[in-house]
Amino acid sequence: MCLSGYEWADFRETKAGIKMHTSIRLCNDTLSLDKMILTPARPADETQLDELIVYQLDVLHVFDRGYFNFAKFDAYSEKGIKFATRIKANTVVHVVEELLVDPSSPITRHAMVTIGNMKHPLQLIETTDSNGKPIRIVCNDAKRSAQEISDIYRNRWKIELFFKWIKQHLVITTLYGKSENAVYNQVYLAMITFCLIILMKNKIGFKGTLLEMLRWIKDGYDQSMATFILKVRKEPERESSGRRRWDNERIFAETLAQYETGDVLHLDDLTYDPFV
Description:
The protein is α+β, with helices and mostly antiparallel strands.
């Protein structure tokens, strides 16, 4: 965002911007929006961490390195609030105990540690991402295995896919107003639309993707709900085998057989009939 047009959201000398602090609820592979806080881009991410926390003992919070605060981590551990996050490259780690690692697993290290000036011990799991880069994850839930914590943190990537989906399909890349109220309202409307699409998809039991659901809604917004549901659930009238692949081995065998038997006169025929 250009600073001259959005002075209320100053971020750098010539830049402006906003942050959408968001928590996504992931349960049984179902993703839904849980909380959202809009702020100018300048305040640090960790200032909104308390607002995004769910104060339930059966919830595991997974967040990125931007939400990193030793005092808050100790307070959460004291209250029994479970979390998992990546640690920064310069984080001081004090080893309490090294734990055994299954050589066949992608986990390269598992240990009990304390980080920075924290008092409560954490599990430290070292592994690699899809590009082979090392990742260090800490978690205060002692009951979860190293492999489970690693898999859970990999699922955090779904929030990035959520942001990408919102930007691509609900058009947040273009802002229609310059005031703080106008910008925030546009983002809120996009989030409300996203939630309504999920609710509609679950309500009618649609098995397709969210993008397909969005297209159905765009095509049938002026129809009655009964008509809309009938169209969405209607079976295709004809079946298609899709794009067919050439059976190259069969074609070669038949051509070779024709050549060996001398049946090659058709190859000299220059007549072209597109209907044959």
